[in-house]
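debug: dumping io for the single-chain case to check the tokenizer round-trip. Nothing else runs in this session.
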Amino acid sequence: MAAAASGQAVEKQLKICGFKRNVDVLVLYLAGQGLRSIPSLSRFHRLRYLWINNNKIEDLTFLINNYCLTELYLNNNELTDISGALKHLCALQILLLHNNQLKKLGKTVKELKGMISLQTLNLFHNPLAQDPGYRLYVIYSLPSVQLLDRKSVTQRERESALHLYNCERSRVMQSIAFGKRVNTPLGTTVGSSRCAQPARRLMMPSGCEFGNHTNKVPFENPEDAVLLRAMARSLMEFSSVDWNKVATCQERRLGNKAEEPHEKLTIQFR
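debug: decoded output
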């Protein structure tokens, strides 16, 4: 009886929208009809927008082949577990699951981890939303989400989530720096923090050039030879930035994080 009613609901919507071919079905509205089950929607390969909210749905096996879905409205149903039902929907951008009976936070989040384009997610008014640290755990596990439970995810929340659930990575990100060799002109004066004496300018004998190993001219002062050797060494430069403020490849692709000038700390030494 329930299967027949749900089948009739689908056919009614197809007739209302004037769809004659399954391939033309991009939108399907089945909300608020008291449905307990939905027939397989596999024939609608190009389905992108699906409303099944405000029903009495308990399982989602009918979505097994709808890979093109980008918006899925499942709020106000009787779902207790979504394991194995949604992980193949990698194109989803909006997923509303609030007002259900989802209890296991870890299993629910694991099911959503493959949705790299997911930007809007609602999980409030589920038992799992009462778990301590629920919001930060979801933010850490699903970094693409920008709007969680109708509230924008802030950069401070992302930093807190990273520090709470992956403190080792957080420490590493704060300590990473890059080094490079910087060639300096030969005439640069050289000083030392260990010596209070003023820097002495190198007096080059006639015929001696930097990097010329074939024309060796003796120095009158041996200290000039030592200074020449020191000047030939490259200057090492190490730079470090706050990596939490640098957009990831995924954030650049989605355009969800504005690029800002990076504050860079640079240290130079020989």
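debug: round-trip ok. The CA atoms of residues 3 and 37 lie 7 Å apart.
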